[in-house]
Amino acid sequence: MTETPGPAHSQTLSRGVRTLEILAAAPGPLTIAEVATQLGVHRSIAYRIVRTLEDHSLVVRDSAGRLAPGPGLAVLARGVSRDLQSAALPELTELSQSLAMTAFVVMWDREECVTLAAVEPRHSGATLAQHPGTRHPVGVGAPGIALQSLYTPEQWRIQAPGQVYRPEAAEAARLGYATSHDEVIAGLSSVAAPVRIPGGRPAAVAVVYIRNDQDPGTIGTAVHAAASRIESALA
């Protein structure tokens, strides 16, 4: 019996995309050797991939020759969920400044939440930088719980096979927002509210903060209101 071959994939393209993901997730610039190690390829292969990405301004080098995401990625990112970004940015700015917290919007990408845009408060002490492209599992943290709150456990099993339905989602559905502490990053708290996207998977608006003297209910009310205004703008 002849087996039907699976769909063809481009290994080179896959490695190039993976290189961008590695650089985007890194806390700072990386060397060619570090990229090659994470890709699991010889340094010469990593070098050719990087040179191609440099040609398209997707990767840049610093004065020491280390690699970082390039400005070409920002051009590509502007086209991702353009309507959601346009509707969310004013609300993120208002949330960030009024609460003195980093505010961000995440998209649901299969098994992960991906930060689409973020705004940090202008005049504040210690804040957390939440970079666009940052990923975390959809089953961890307030944004993922907020997404789950729009579904019943049965619906979630269909929408996200293999992903655990958090019991906190029912309470988040009642309140209109979800909370978490010490989940995605140790010591940090987050509050998030879901955003229904016409014709697409939902997103979530969230804030993340360090201080423990904040009332989650007050924060949740503000985040939920921002999510509602974004939904209205997208309708």
Describe what you observe in this structure:
With 235 residues, this protein is an alpha+beta fold. It has two domains: 11-75, Winged helix-like DNA-binding domain superfamily/Winged helix DNA-binding domain (Arc Repressor Mutant, subunit A); 78-234, GAF domain (Beta-Lactamase). 43% of the residues lie in helices and 18% in strands. It is built from nine helices and eight strands. The protein has a six-stranded antiparallel sheet. The longest helix has 19 residues, at 216-234.
Number of helices: 9
Largest sheet: 6 strands, antiparallel
Low-confidence stretches: 1-5
Distance between the termini: 52 Å
β-strand amount: 15-25%
How many separate domains make up the residues?
Answer: 2
Q: What strand line-up does the widest sheet have?
A: 5-4-3-8-7-6
What is the CATH-assigned architecture of the largest domain?
2-Layer Sandwich
**The first-level CATH class name of the largest domain:** Alpha Beta
Oligomer: single chain
Tell me the Rg in angstroms. 20 Å
Overall helicity: 40-55%
CATH topology descriptor of the largest domain: Beta-Lactamase
Order of helices and strands: HHHEEHHEEEHHHEEEH
Q: Structural class, from secondary structure content?
A: alpha+beta
Number of strands: 8
CATH homology superfamily name of the largest domain = GAF domain
Task: Kindly report the average pLDDT value.
Answer: 87
